[in-house]
Amino acid sequence: MKKILGILLAVMMMAALLCTAAMAEEEYDNTVPQPEGGMKFEGDWAFTGGLMQIWYEEEGYRVSINLRNGADMTGRIWEYNCYYVEEQDILMSISGAKRAYVVDPATGEEIDGEVEYVEVGESEAVIAFSANGSLTWADASEPDTGADLEFRSIGRFSGVWRSAAGEEPAWVEFTWCGLTEDEFHYSVYLHRGDEETYAEFIMIGVYNEETGKLECTGASIDPEDPETYEAFFSATEDGILYEAANGIAMEYDMLGGSNG
User: Fold this and answer.
1) CA of residue 225 relative to chain centroid, distance
2) First-last CA distance in the chain
3) If you count DSSP H runs as helices and E runs as strands, how many of each does the chain have, helices first?
4) Distance from C-alpha of 247 to C-alpha of 168, rounded to nearest angstrom
5) 3-state secondary structure of 39
């Protein structure tokens, strides 16, 4: 009898452990869905001398704002963790930090400097839409910093992207350049083809706010065949689409180098 009770107890304990593990797994996998109203904030936004980037991560939004002084090649970066306030249609911060940097004149690299502050549970920054569809930024601790600044959408084209599995070989590197004559420009370095058809192109990309496409023009770097070239890129749910013949789906390359 004791042996049977012992077996039953072991089975019950095992069932309880399995149930607890299943509940823990369910809780771990239960990520908070992104609020529909907050989706329009995601992307990159800019004006001359400033870049705002917004991502949704698990339960909220991460916001990075980079203001650069071209005169002395220094800058400041504000980073916030925010949540979406549906009633006001805004992003409100719950923590924030600010740091300085200097730009290496030889490489253009941003070299981190002093961390000026870190605020947790005290930050009150607000990201909101203006009447013309631009984003505005207000920080209660620095009310003059974001005053009169408006960030316009520039899509989300940055870093290195590669053709997905099964696609024609290609990779492209996007670098944000800034605003020129009311147009948002990227430098675009495109590589396409296999060993027999390989070609490289250097282009300038202009973001079209109406179509959401990056429209690129440039030429081959081959001095014997400086072919003029046009390319178009657009965002998809899984990455970006290089709108060449038949389209080439591209995925973000976290390593960001020519060798992947």
Assistant:
1) 35
2) 65
3) 1, 17
4) 9
5) helix
Q: How far apart are CA 217 and CA 61, in angstroms?
A: 34
Q: What is the pLDDT of residues 102-112, one digit of tens each?
A: 998 888 788 99
Which of 62, 56, 57, 58 has its CA nearest to residue 30? 58
CA dihedral for 22, 24, 29, 35, sign (positive or negative): positive
* Domain spans in the chain, listed from the N-terminal domain onward: 37-153, 159-252
**Identity (one letter) of the amino acid at 183?**
E
Cα–Cα distance measured from residue 227 to residue 189, given in angstroms and rounded to the nearest whole number: 14
Q: Annotate 191-238 with DSSP letters as a single string.
A: EES-TTT-EEEEEEEEEETTTTEEEEEEEES-TT---EEEEEEEE-SS
What token pair was written down for 25? Answer: 């797994």
- Whose tokens are 């038949």? That residue is 246
- Kindly state the tokens that stand for 68: 């650069």
133-251-249 Cα angle (round to 5): 85
pLDDT in tens, 152-179: 988 889 899 999 999 999 999 998 887 6
pTM: 0.74
